[in-house]
Write a structure and sequence with these properties.
The complex is a heterodimer of chains A (149) and B (474).
Chain A lengths: L1 H46 L7 H14 L1 H12 L2 H7 L1 H4 L4 H14 L36
Helix pairs in contact in A: 1-2, 1-3, 2-3
Chain B lengths: L3 E7 L3 H13 L5 E4 L7 H7 L7 H4 L1 E2 L15 H4 L14 H5 L9 H14 L27 H9 L4 E3 L32 H4 L1 H4 L4 E4 L3 E8 L2 E8 L5 E11 L5 H9 L14 E9 L11 E5 L15 E6 L16 E8 L8 E4 L5 E4 L5 H17 L5 E9 L26 E2 L2 E6 L14 H15 L1
Parallel strand pairs in B: 1-2, 1-8, 2-5, 3-14, 8-17
Antiparallel strand pairs in B: 4-10, 6-7, 7-8, 9-12, 9-15, 10-11, 11-12, 13-14, 16-17
Helix pairs in contact in B: 1-12, 6-12
Classes of the chains: A mainly alpha (149), B alpha/beta (474).
Amino acid sequence: MNKSIERRKFLKICAATSIVAVLPLGIYVLDNESRLCQLVEEILTKHLPGRIILQADIEKFSKDFFIERYDIALKTHIFSVLAPLVRVASGFDEDLHGKIDNLERMILTKFLLNSDFFANDAKKKTIIYNGATSNICRTKNPFAQFLTP
Amino acid sequence: MDDHYEMIVIGSGFGSLFFIKQYLNKKPNAKIAVIEWGENRSHSWQVTNNKNSEFSSSNTHAQDSHHKPWNYTIGLGGGTNCWFGQTPRFIPADFEMKSKFNISDDWPFSYNDLEPYYMAAENIMAISGSDAMGKVSPRSGSFPLPPHRVSAIDEIMMAAQPNLHFPIATARSPLALKNRNQCCATAQCNLCPVNAKFTAHNGLTEILTHPNITYFMNAQAREVIHHNGTASGVMYLTNNAEERSIYGDLIVLGANGIQSPAILLRSGINHPQTGVGICEQLGYEYEVFLNGVDNFGGSTITTGLNYSLYDSHPYREKAGAALFYFENRIKHGLRLEEGRWRQVLPLLVAIEDLPQTSNRVSLNSQGQAYVSHANVSSYARAGLQHVHDNIEKVLAPLPVEKIIPLRERPTESHIQCSLRSGHDANKFVVDGDSLHHKMRNLVVVGSSTFTTCPPANPSLTVAAMSLRAADRLV
């Protein structure tokens, strides 16, 4: 009798653990693109006030960014789902490449470097996303000045 | 005999190819064999496949899982493929650590002995740099190529510290050359997208295609064959694990700092110091936020070198010297503040380590190279602390807003000091001419033979040492 209770208890724990483990992945699969895109939009709006970025460009950039940075896509998604208090309590903020600032810098930098922003001397109100660069040139430097022969 | 050569060379990285180049200068008709574990992978293959080789470093040697990683390329050209092309020379004091600082050991030759070969190596690789660097590493001639355009940050530092801050010396070409393009400053140097940095494939093609040299590819050198203290050949494994042997009068061992000692150990050439002392620089990253100065305007990924805690380091008796690399790559991102995007400096510091007897290359039960490296020396740790304590002073000429210590780097991809050179045959594996103390027709080349581990990048010094060794041998 006792053994069967223990077995039931064990199975319940296993089931609960599985749900907890699989849940984030499930949420991610069902809802990842819109959530991540929303987070990207919030970050760009916050740091580029008064600039105009087409919604289609934000969606395209978000998709490109998280294809290249698939390593942080799931973490970022969970981050975007969790309430700030829970994030801090769970230590999740620390896990995400240090601090949330870093994610914001990563996203803002990638977007600006792959847009016409610096080509237009950062003065134009509308920013056009140029699309993903190749993996090889992922850290291109638009400010570099070269020697001429 | 078809399988007999004047010289058999194991490996095809900097150490091996520069040795061959000088050897052929003296003996152009020499019949040479090169045994290379990897494939001949062109620049375009490497860029297309986003890797330098099919081999991963971690699969070609064993080690404790919690120890630091080691990084290298197995393939034709070895480290010339994956290197970033940073080419500062060592400074004279690096060769006199015992005499000057009572630390570790003196090298068996001096900076002055090596200087003509530094010049030759720089000319072969078409190195870019400023002759002002002669203030720390004296020069008998000019750099073959002009220096890269530096950043606004470097300009401030050079004006304030003209004897300590210089444009980077580098094999990333600042101008288009016959066989190389202009550096594009994209920070992907291990897989340079535009073929701007020196590699064996673009700079030593005459060696890779020389009619007197037979290349045995996919051939894993296992043992140096020897008898009565004389090396006579090399046994290698083919792709199908078949054992084969070739024979020669002179054997040159230039695999790398992990595989070269393993080959000697498997061969039973048992000098007690074989594999002992493996080390590399301790790397550390900072990020510096600036007030009103824009970065990233230089023409390559690293634009400045600062020697404040290297050449004029007053505490080198107690703490490892450090070399600061002023980065022109957007490594940690732009700043978040509107209009201050570029007011940030990624800073990399390389700190000298010392070879320790507790760190070594041995063999595991399968005869594979096994690296034990528990930690860097207390000397390197003291060097890092010295950097933390003095970084504000070093950066004093700049309008610094805040300095953020980030992290230790897992590896600098420089494997050194596992077959150290020195005069004392009991204490060192090879002598000042790169000859094995116990086998006088066995030459060892590469950074494994470094006596100590200065903070500067090793590849140029490896090339210069190989030119010198071949010059003195023939």
